[in-house]
Amino acid sequence: MSKTRVLVIEDEESIASFVAMYLRKEGYEVDLAAAGAGGIKLAAKRPPQLVILDLMLPDMDGFEVCSRLRRESDVPIIMLTARDAGTDKVVGLELGADDYVTKPFDPRELVARVKSVLRRAQARAQAAAAGPLSSGDVTLDPERHEVLVAGKQAQMTAKEFDLLHYLLMNQGLALSRQQLLEQVWGYDFLGDTRTVDVHINQVRKKLGNAAVIETVWGVGYKLK
Ligand code: CA
């Protein structure tokens, strides 16, 4: 079996080589790029299974790189940032990053995130192979990344899609906010389960009466 390839896009050489060293020790193949444009080119030439992306790059910011990579593939992306603002985190994840690590970080923590993100990506690929899911008048097709509400295509952000996907896979079960955070966002977002509430409300709006997401008091949510 060939090695899992990770592309690290980071202009700070000390961090890049540090991260590469830890990943190689874990058996990953590592490609390095020191700027956004070079990283995008390298990703096209040697498609990675995961990208570690610095937010502050000399030529363009990580958000831009992230959305350009996302136009070409759904490769999992972990963002690195020196900033600590929760808003950046939400924006990063909305643009399609799968996880987020704030500098300075423990490389073992980053390796753990890499493993967890790759695991989730694999689970997603398996779910996609299992075919479309539906509830009421809502159908979600993981392979085509499409949601039909009463026969019409609904526009959803990446996280809204993943959230609805997880609810559909667990239809009829009460799911806690913490569980949804872990399964859909995949990081320990201690203390702010409101992210889940915000996304649930968005999804509800887009579903209208076509399917019902119930609030389960003291627990979380359930798709009927
Ligand atoms: Ca940087």
Shape descriptor = elongated
User: Can you tell me the CATH topology of the largest domain?
Assistant: Rossmann fold
Contiguous runs where pLDDT drops below 50 for at least 5 residues: none
Radius of gyration of CA atoms, rounded to a whole number: 18 Å
Can you tell me the number of structural domains?
2
- Please identify, by name, the CATH architecture of the largest domain: 3-Layer(aba) Sandwich
Number of strands: 12
Order of helices and strands: EHEHEHEHEHEEEEHEHHEE
Strand order of the largest sheet: 2-1-3-4-5
N→C terminal distance: 42 Å
- What amount of the residues lies in strands? 15-25%
What do we call the CATH homologous superfamily of the largest domain? Response regulator
Sketch the major β-sheet: 5 strands, parallel
Q: Quick one: CATH class of the largest domain? A: Alpha Beta
* Helical residues, percent: 40-55%
Structural class: alpha/beta
Bound molecules: calcium ion
Count of runs of 4 or more consecutive helical residues: 8
The averaged pLDDT comes out at 89
Characterization of this structure:
Strand 7 and strand 8 form a beta hairpin. The chain folds into 2 domains: 123 residues, Rossmann fold (3-Layer(aba) Sandwich); 92 residues, Arc Repressor Mutant, subunit A, CATH 1.10.10. Helix 2 runs parallel beside helix 3 and helix 6 crosses helix 8. It has a 5-stranded parallel β-sheet, sandwiched between helices. A 4-stranded antiparallel β-sheet has the order 6-7-8-9, covered by helices on one side. Strands 10-12-11 form a 3-stranded antiparallel β-sheet. The chain is α/β, with parallel strands linked by helices and 224 residues long. It starts with a strand and ends with a strand. It has 8 helices and 12 strands. The radius of gyration is 18 Å and the shape is elongated. The model has no long low-confidence stretch (mean pLDDT 89). Bound molecules: calcium ion (CA). Calcium ion binds next to loops. The site of calcium ion has 5 residues, from loops.
